[in-house]
């Protein structure tokens, strides 16, 4: 089905060109993804609310953006209760419309809407588990998300549901590990190996991001809040200590590593993350291990004692471990 976009006095409409009947109405702008604007939309006949990602075609004859093709192909592989569902694809000469299921808010909005500015312990435990379940599903299918952050995680707090969204920067990975661009992951959630310009990376970069998100749910603010790549590196070092060849073998060989980096020697993670018990802190420490080869993976994280008392029947999907 193709469609065309028209402006109205108060609403924007999507018309299928083959029938010239209104498919649905845009009701509000709800955000922007790695490309394109996302709108809340009401389907005309069913009255169902959906999210529509409106992607402008690239200039001249270049066609659909590669990021859009990548997201579509990856989402077609990922049919999971904790991953946002791509319902339909519409397009015309100028735009591509990705029709997604709608969830009320993203995780960042949920955190900032709380009076105490952090999530309660049950919600934090459940949402961390659901996030791990979703990314474990991706990793076992050889897919890296590469842009995990609270803005890309949708939640329905009433029904205790979390879904990972925005796969525009995702990609499949192969063996042997290929050289990927290091311009991935929003700065605050970017793994240190990426910040130091490693030539190779893999699943551990997603786990680092999950650790940062876990900490943010606990304390209500981002753990590492740098305003540039070097500032981000120093924020990490201040909390987790400055790495060396003993704590992270091979770190000195990274392109952007400098022997004259300031030396922070005290690990203050416990002081920096509130509202977390010792078992949760142990999981967080394992998520934020410098050496990617020693950083905990999704399978082992899901089997951590932190989730021992979580009723798995309250989850949309059981862990595939």
TrEMBL record:
Gene3D superfamilies: Phosphorylase Kinase, domain 1, Transferase(Phosphotransferase) domain 1. GO terms for molecular function: ATP binding; cyclin-dependent protein serine/threonine kinase activity; RNA polymerase II CTD heptapeptide repeat kinase activity. Residues 24-307 form the Protein kinase domain. It catalyses: [DNA-directed RNA polymerase] + ATP = phospho-[DNA-directed RNA polymerase] + ADP + H(+); L-seryl-[protein] + ATP = O-phospho-L-seryl-[protein] + ADP + H(+); L-threonyl-[protein] + ATP = O-phospho-L-threonyl-[protein] + ADP + H(+). Signal peptide: none annotated. One of its GO terms (biological process) is cell division. It is found in: Nucleus. Keywords: ATP-binding, Cell cycle, Cell division, Kinase, Mitosis, Nucleotide-binding, Nucleus, Phosphoprotein, Serine/threonine-protein kinase, Transferase. CDD domains: STKc_CDK_like. It comes from the Eukaryota. GO terms for cellular component: nucleus. ATP binds at residue 53. Belongs to the protein kinase superfamily. CMGC Ser/Thr protein kinase family. CDC2/CDKX subfamily. This is Protein kinase domain-containing protein. It comes from Aphis gossypii.
